[in-house]
Specification:
Blueprint lengths: L24 E5 L4 H12 L3 E6 L2 H14 L5 E4 L7 H15 L4 E4 L15 H26 L5 E6 L12 H21 L5 E7 L6 H6 L15 H8 L10 E3 L2
Parallel strand pairs: 1-2, 1-4, 2-3, 4-5, 5-6, 6-7
Helix pairs in contact: 1-2, 1-7, 3-4, 4-5
This protein binds NADP nicotinamide-adenine-dinucleotide phosphate.
Length: 256
């Protein structure tokens, strides 16, 4: 059992200390856009050295430049396409991080593919496989490759990104919903395996409706002004990535 049960929310009124992520090395997938971009900038603002992982170099460079311009700790870029990357690619990533940083304190699995919004009867196998590759298989390969580096940290945190449709299936959410159930399950399995054998905790965040490109694609008729921004949900990300959540593991937290 985890040391602390949060009952799906971080402590009320939580506010992180300015330097709460100082000296932490944190990798963020999908760091070029949406929630991942804001998480990368926020982790850097709280003092972390952030490894910006993603598939679109220009977007990653823009985040890198924004971090530099703000005077936060210098970031690093690692271009990788989670749809096509092989186990050897993840091994190469781990080796490069080992050489440059010698350990890893945080891993935010944020990148995801939405896939088709259609019935199972009409869902294409190609789209199903793509969603599972990015949302599930990549998380497994990346986590496995980085475990040795996470074990070198005194207080490591793996954060997965879930969704409401990863807890209750809904019509027309297809592979995306199934992949988010898998994410919740993977996070629990990892948390249980690591709890008494390492300093690594693993938890899920369900961001809730958040103003991003993916949300606009999934809900084209929604007025973006009516939903939260990525900045609004950052306290949960900083809490789970930093020392204040020590002892919290195997949980699924709502960011809203
Ligand atoms: P987003 O704006 O579409 O951003 C997704 C990020 O993932 C982008 O940086 C994208 O890179 C990257 N990505 C996608 N496929 C990739 C691949 N094959 N390889 C590497 N990177 C890839 O979406 P978001 O709303 O911020 O979503 C972030 C996370 O929150 C996802 O896990 C999503 O399922 C979850 N979520 C979001 C909401 C919401 O309301 N927004 C609600 C529940 C859960 P490019 O920019 O290069 O395409």
């Amino acid at each position: 059992m985890p040391d602390i049960i949060l009952n799906r929310h971080i402590p009320e009124g939580y506010s992180a200390a300015d330097n709460s992520l100082r000296d932490r090395v944190i990798l963020v997938t999908g760091a070029g856009d949406g929630i991942g971009r804001t998480a990368a900038l926020t982790f850097a603002r709280y003092g972390a050295t952030v490894i910006l992982a993603g598939r679109t170099q220009e977007k990653l460079e823009a985040v890198y430049d924004a971090i530099e311009h703000a005077g936060y700790p210098q970031a690093a870029i690692y271009a990788i396409d989670l749809k096509t990357a092989t186990e050897a690619d993840y091994t190469a990533l781990a080796e490069q991080l080992e050489n440059e940083f010698s350990r890893l304190d945080g891993l935010l699995h944020n990148a995801a593919a939405l896939g088709e919004r259609t019935s199972i009867a009409n869902y294409s196998l190609a789209s199903w496989n793509q969603v599972m590759s990015v949302n599930v298989n990549a998380q497994f390969m990346l986590s496995k490759a980085l475990l040795p580096l996470l074990k070198k940290s005194a207080d490591a945190s793996i954060v997965f990104t879930s969704s409401g449709v990863g807890r209750q299936g809904r019509a027309f959410w297809g592979a995306y919903a199934v992949s988010k159930f898998a994410t919740e399950g993977f996070s629990q399995v990892l948390a249980a395996e690591l709890e008494n054998t390492s300093n690594i905790r693993a938890n899920c965040i369900n961001p809730g409706a958040t103003r991003t490109r993916m949300r606009a694609t999934a809900f084209p008729a929604e007025d973006p002004a009516t939903i939260k921004t990525p900045e609004d949900i950052m306290p949960t990300y900083v809490y789970l990535m930093g020392p204040d959540s020590k002892g919290v593991t195997g949980q699924s937290i709502d960011a809203q």
